[in-house]
Amino acid sequence: MHVARGGLLVAGAGAFAALALTAPGRLGALRVCGVRLHAVLDVVVALALAAAPALRSVRPDATGIVVVEVAAVGWIRLSTLTRYRRPQPAAPVAVPTSGRGATAPRAGGATAPRAGGATAPRAGVATVPAALASGARGAGRAAARLHRRWRNAQDGGR
């Protein structure tokens, strides 16, 4: 689709891309401003884009105006549905020190498996963010499956 005088569309796309790249949270690449200021900028940029076709110098044709207005309304709707909070660091989890059966200390120094294989952080155990631990755990499981398949293939499927 061709839009005559589509500079406003390009400027709006650039503004929305800049807002997306500077968003707080996991998907934002840069942290330029705080969460509250970013929420205000989301609405201000969308309102400015919605009002821009009123200026003759940047007004696109009818199709372009429809696209600009739909994009502005969509961005305002997105910003009203977004929960703006300060990003919180991932909660650390304990990394099991041995194979499948994670253990917990018992009275007298003995250890017993915990229900569900969960471990509680304790002295001397390294903690890592939950996302890293689950990713490493998944990679380890995938490597074990691959190793078992390779070993079965070497043994002739016995």
Description:
The chain has 158 residues and is mostly helical. Among the domains are: 7-81; 128-158. Helix content is 49%, strand content 8%. The protein has helices spanning 7-21, 35-51, 62-81, 130-154; strands at residues 92-94, 103-105, 111-113, 127-129. It has a two-stranded antiparallel ribbon with strand order 1-4. A two-stranded antiparallel ribbon has the order 2-3. α1 (7-21) packs parallel to α3 and α2 (35-51) packs antiparallel against α3. The protein starts with 6 loop residues before the first helix and ends with a helix. 7% of the residues are buried. The model has no long low-confidence stretch (mean pLDDT 75).
Features:
two-stranded antiparallel ribbon
Radius of gyration based on Cα positions: 27 Å
Structural class designation = mainly alpha
- Number of helical segments with 4 or more residues: 4
- Give the N-to-C terminal Cα separation: 61 Å
Which outline best applies? elongated
**What average pLDDT do the residues reach?**
75
Give the fraction of residues assigned to helices.
40-55%
Uncertain residue segments: none
Number of strands: 4
The SSE string, one letter per element, is: HHHEEEEH
Tell me the β content: 5-15%
Describe the largest sheet: 2 strands, antiparallel
Strand order of the largest sheet: 1-4
